[in-house]
Amino acid sequence: MSIEDKLLQTPVIPLVQASDPEVAIRTSKALVDGGLDVIEVVMRTPEALDCMAAIVEALPDAIVGAGTVLSAGQAGSALEAGAKFIVSPGLNEGVVEASRTGGVPVYPGVNTPSEVQTAWNLGLRTLKFFPAGLAGGTPMLKALGSVFRDVKFIPTGGVSASNLGEYLAVSSVLACGGSWLTPADEIAAGNYDAVTTLAREAAGIAQSARG
Of 57, 128, 166, 186, which is the active-site residue? Predict the structure, then answer.
């Protein structure tokens, strides 16, 4: 099943940030246990690639990708570590090309009509909308969707359990991403059950929003 088919079923992408591969695995397993098996490992720590590779090996049924990818070189390294998709905070043609060469989907970040149009002309039809809350939230997504009618968005940044349903109700939204599902304090305390609870809650909200 493709990542987008998975997201049609459960349109939530949790973000995992870790420095310890064992913590990364336990966090990701907690998310999968809660019903979320598309996982974005953000490249924000020196150990991020090792963490992602460990998750890929430990949870072969999950779809694990790399987020916060800033360059073509980083994209290549993420692909070597087993990334099944690439997400970047902005639109960079080098990252797009490296991902395509590696044969995986790429979701660059956009938040203006010019960026969406540039991405559209690169042949991209699914884009990250970032930072969603600061960039206009659901009203902006509705405006962009009315113009770019064949584009789907993945809003991230400012999404939470309290507004997840609102975002998913927008017809141009494929899925939502967020770090609220992996609270650092709970993970530091070893409370992985809290992660599972948040994941299950998000999956339930998503099911209700999508009917």
Answer: 128
Query: Catalytic one among 40, 57, 80, 97?
Result: 40
Catalytic, 166? Answer no
How far apart, in whole angstroms, are the C-alpha atoms of residue 79 and residue 66? Answer: 8
d(C-alpha 128, C-alpha 139), whole Å: 16
128 belongs to the catalytic site: yes
pLDDT in tens, the chain (211 residues): 889 999 999 999 999 999 999 999 999 999 999 999 999 999 999 999 999 999 999 999 999 999 999 999 999 999 999 999 999 999 999 999 999 999 999 999 999 999 999 999 999 999 999 999 999 999 999 999 999 999 999 999 999 999 999 999 999 999 999 999 999 999 999 999 999 999 999 999 999 998 7
